[in-house]
């Protein structure tokens, strides 16, 4: 695997290079560039990288401008210190988004995801149905979410997900069989991915599957208290302002 690193902080670039080689010694670091201009020049000549680790904020601008200046034919892993950069990153060639400072498990996740996608496309007779089920969006809605599990990339069917929720600064998904995984999307992004037919944003913390609900009880201050079929990390309530919409959503099922 040939990797190009685009990072304007030399120490960060060197640390990233060393960590990638620690994860997979077979990786070849083709080069390290520190600007949009330098990256455009690098990509103009062979060999082409198989994967680019691309810092979002570079000295001469945002790296999204790279896609206006050059043809980027390979997948990209975006890197940033700001979680809010994730959404625009996924409007390009991105297959993963990694927060800085880097954690080895996040980088391993990104590399494993790249290898999994590469294996699909390099197969002599690719299983298009499996590819569609694992990675595609059906009818504009996401049918699976890819998660890291024991060093592997695993697709979790959306219908198997009981809830998405925020804990601290992380977003997790919890399945109906009580497996919990970190996921690299905000709840706002996930809402758009799953639609509002099967899932409802109960409050700032929880996005819940209709099938999670065992019953609904009146709560304090005209809130609604949801009794889930499986245990949630915290009580799930629907605010007074959302109560009417929530009941209409349930009634429309």
From TrEMBL:
Pfam families: LytTR, Response_reg. SMART domains: LytTR, REC. The keyword DNA damage does not apply. The keyword Secreted does not apply. The modification 4-aspartylphosphate is found at residue 55. It comes from the Bacteria. Residues 145-252 form the HTH LytTR-type domain. This is Two component transcriptional regulator, LytTR family.
């Amino acid at each position: 695997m040939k990797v190009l690193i685009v990072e304007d902080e030399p120490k960060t670039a060197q640390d990233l290079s060393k960590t990638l080689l620690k994860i997979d010694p077979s990786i070849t670091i083709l080069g390290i560039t520190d600007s949009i201009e330098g990256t455009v020049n690098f990509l103009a000549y062979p060999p082409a990288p198989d994967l680019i680790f691309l810092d979002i904020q570079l000295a001469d601008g945002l790296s999204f401008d790279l896609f206006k200046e050059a043809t980027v034919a390979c997948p990209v892993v975006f890197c940033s210190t700001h979680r809010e950069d994730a959404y625009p990153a996924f409007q390009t060639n991105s297959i993963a988004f990694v927060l800085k400072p880097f954690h080895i498990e996040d980088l391993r996740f990104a590399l494993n995801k790249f290898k999994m996608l590469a294996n699909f496309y390099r197969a002599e007779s690719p299983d298009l149905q499996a590819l569609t089920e694992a990675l595609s969006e059906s009818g504009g809605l996401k049918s699976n979410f890819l998660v890291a599990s024991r060093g592997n990339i695993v697709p979790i069917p959306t219908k198997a997900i009981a809830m998405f929720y925020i804990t601290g600064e992380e977003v997790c998904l919890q399945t109906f069989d009580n497996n919990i995984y970190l996921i690299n999307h905000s709840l706002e992004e996930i809402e758009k991915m799953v639609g509002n037919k099967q899932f409802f944003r109960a409050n700032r913390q929880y996005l819940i599957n209709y099938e999670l609900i065992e019953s609904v009880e009146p709560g304090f201050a005209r809130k609604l208290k949801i009794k889930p079929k499986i245990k949630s990390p915290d009580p799930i309530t629907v605010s007074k302002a959302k109560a009417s919409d929530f009941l209409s959503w349930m009634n429309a099922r």
